[in-house]
Amino acid sequence: MQYNLDYYEEMLRRNSKSAEEISAIRWKFISIIKPNCILDYGSGVGWFRAYKPQGVEVDTYDIGRYPQTGILHENYSIITFWDVLEHLSGFNEIEDVLKMTNYVAFSVPIKPIDEPLRSWKHFKPGEHLHYFTDPILNDVFRKYGFTQLIGGHPECPPRKDILSAIYQRF
Predict the structure, then answer these.
(1) Contact 38/25 with Cβ under 8 angstroms?
(2) Phi and psi torsions of 137, nearest 5°
(3) What residue ranges define each of the domains in the chain, with the CATH number in brackets?
(4) DSSP labels for 4-68?
(5) CB atoms within 10 A of CB 153
């Protein structure tokens, strides 16, 4: 038995039905661009890669100590930021990475208009450093040369108050 990334991913697949469900939703969501080489930035424990379809290469990068591939390519079909952007201190952290693709996909919590911020389940001071709205996300990504291709709430259910979007370089 080799305790390598393949072993680790097999253990992930055996131990989480909810991660499998969310990963399937995300793979279906990004399938419109037919990606073949992906960077999952902020990959966490690696669920997204663990459930990848056949024939798709996924590099993983995270600041955590989880097994990951690292950033192995100069260009990617798409770079994903699943549940990542709200944790960044600023987009300057990912400026160089954004130059490596023409497509970006992400999921972020979006507060319902009628929900008070302090009682909202995603209000996590110190952990969530930003709280986004659609217009703010459009402005931020426009600054880096991207425009929204598609947005929606495919993860809701099983999750709540999560926006998913794909942005394309213009």
Answers:
(1) no
(2) -60, -45
(3) 5-169 (3.40.50.150)
(4) SHHHHHHHHHHT-HHHHHHHHHHHHHHGGG--SEEEEET-TT-HHHHTPPTT-EEEEE-SSSS--
(5) 14
Q: Could you give the CA distance from residue 141 to residue 21 in angstroms, rounded to a whole number?
A: 28
Q: How far is CA 74 from CA 33, 40, 46, 137, 153, in A?
A: 19, 14, 21, 25, 30
pTM: 0.91
How far apart, in Å, do the first and last CA atoms of the chain sit? 47
**Rounded mean pLDDT for each run of 10 residues along the chain, 170 residues in total:** 73 80 97 97 94 96 91 98 96 96 97 92 93 94 97 94 97
What is the CB neighbour count within 10 angstroms for residue 47? 20
pLDDT recorded at residue 75: 98
> Do 60 and 46 form a contact (C-beta atoms < 8 A)?
yes
Q: Residue 152's pLDDT is what? A: 96
